[in-house]
Amino acid sequence: MSACDCRMEPIGHFQRQNGEYVLVHRCLGCGFERFNRIAADDDFDLVLSLPTLPPRTSLAVKAQQVKVLLGEQQEQWDWVEEAS
User: What is the mean pLDDT of residues 47-73?
Assistant: First the structure.
C-alpha cells in the first residue's frame, strides 16, 4: 500500500547497471511509484512478462512528479488570470 492507502500494482520492470532486476509498482490512487528488487523466490518468467521500463531512480521519479505538479499549478493560475 502507498501513503494514500490505495493498492499498488506492478507496471513493469527494469535492469540496473549492476544487472539487478527491479519491479516497479504504481499506486492506483495517487500514482506514487515504488521500486522493489527481485527476490530469489519471485517468478522470474512472470517478472519478464511485464513491460520493460527505462531504468529510473527515486530522484528522477520525484523530479518528474514535481514537474507535473508545477504544470498543474501553472494551469490553475492561468485559469485564475483568465477569470479576472
Answer: 78
Q: Note the residue count of the chain.
A: 84
Q: Which residue ranges make up each domain of the chain?
A: 8-83
Please give the torsion angle defined by the CA atoms of residues 66, 68, 70 and 74, in that order, rounded to the nearest 10 degrees: 180
Show the DSSP H helices in the chain as ranges.
Answer: 44-49, 58-83
Please identify which residue in the block is written with the cell numbers 519491479.
23
pTM (2 d.p.): 0.64
Cell of 16: 540496473
Q: Which amino acid is at 27?
A: C
Contact by Cβ (8 Å): 22, 35: yes
- Written as one letter, the residue type at 84 is S
